[in-house]
Design goal:
The chain is α+β, with helices and mostly antiparallel strands. About 20% of the residues lie in helices and about 20% in strands. It has one domain. The protein is globular, with a radius of gyration of 17 Å. Residues about 1-5 and about 175-180 have low confidence and may be disordered. Bound molecules: zinc ion. The site of zinc ion (ZN) has 7 residues, from strand 7. Zinc ion binds next to strand 7.
Length: about 180
């Protein structure tokens, strides 16, 4: 129907696959609580799977298919910074600009026995409601010289997918493997 569906849809991931994809769990054997709506996920509509831990509200999980494999991180939402109040902030993943309290800094703590290495956590500015995957579907306001709306949506989704993959690749693999210091 549309010419703009060349991008690959996210492959439906299994529960165990999602649980096993979190690279920075601390401890590495920690339990990942999946969202209650896991069975209702419409995989063809989303470019990442993101959800908030119901028992630890500052904690969110972000999982995507990267290079054919499920890759995910657990992120901690930093307390809001008053200095940013009243400013609009752009989400690093969907690139939508939102109110200052709708985007927050999230960091991916490195699960490491070595406390010093925790300092080098990677972070990003992200929609607090993890709504990037919905925002990219919004019908764009286009003028006569703009590309058709489906193309705008497809290119937003491609960008979201690419930036999510880049971020997930930037988080080191399984650094939490228990290691005894001598
Ligand atoms: Zn976003």
């Amino acid at each position: 129907m549309s010419n703009y569906q060349e991008r690959h849809d996210m492959r439906p991931l299994g529960r165990d696959e999602v649980r096993g994809s979190i690279m920075n769990l601390d401890p590495p054997t920690g339990r990942v609580r999946l969202p209650a709506w896991f069975d209702e996920i419409r995989w063809e509509r989303i470019d990442y799977l993101g959800w908030r831990d119901t028992r630890a509200q500052q904690r969110v999980y972000l999982v995507a298919e990267v290079d054919g494999e499920a890759r995910g991180v657990v992120l901690r939402q930093n307390p809001s910074q008053p200095a940013l109040a009243s400013r609009a902030v752009m989400c690093d993943l969907c690139r939508f600009t939102r109110r200052f309290n709708e985007v927050a800094l999230f960091t991916a703590p490195r699960a490491s026995a070595d406390k010093r290495r925790r300092l080098s956590a990677v972070g990003l500015l992200l929609c607090v409601d993890l709504g990037c995957v919905r925002a990219v579907h919004r019908t764009p306001v286009t003028g006569p010289h703009d590309p058709p709306p489906e193309q705008v949506v497809a290119s937003r989704r491609q960008g979201l997918r690419r930036r999510t993959a880049d971020f997930l690749r930037s988080v080191p693999d399984r650094v939490g493997t228990p290691r005894r210091s001598r």
